[in-house]
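wait is this the right file?? whatever heres the structure
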């Protein structure tokens, strides 16, 4: 089976789009998660470097649960 160039373009686009949304994986996410949570709780603007965390949390159920727990914990210790 052969793909024509249109199909190949689409395939490449899909592959890269998926990668753009989630470049850090679960390991990278947990490393940046505390920083991200603090920025969000402070109501600061999320820096570009931390936006990948949001993208990952939106897609990853286990990191989302971890993030919720972290926010709950931080809210308890912060005034
Ligand atoms: Zn994850």
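ok assuming it is, sequence goes like this
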């Amino acid at each position: 089976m052969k793909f024509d160039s249109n199909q190949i373009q689409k395939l490449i686009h899909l592959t890269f789009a998926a990668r753009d949304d989630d470049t850090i994986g679960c390991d990278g996410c947990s490393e940046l998660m505390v920083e991200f949570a603090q920025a969000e709780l402070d109501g600061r603007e999320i820096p570009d470097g931390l936006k990948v965390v949001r993208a990952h949390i939106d897609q990853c159920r286990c990191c989302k649960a971890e993030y919720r727990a972290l926010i709950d914990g931080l809210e308890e210790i912060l005034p």
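The longest helix spans residues 25-42. so i think its the right one actually
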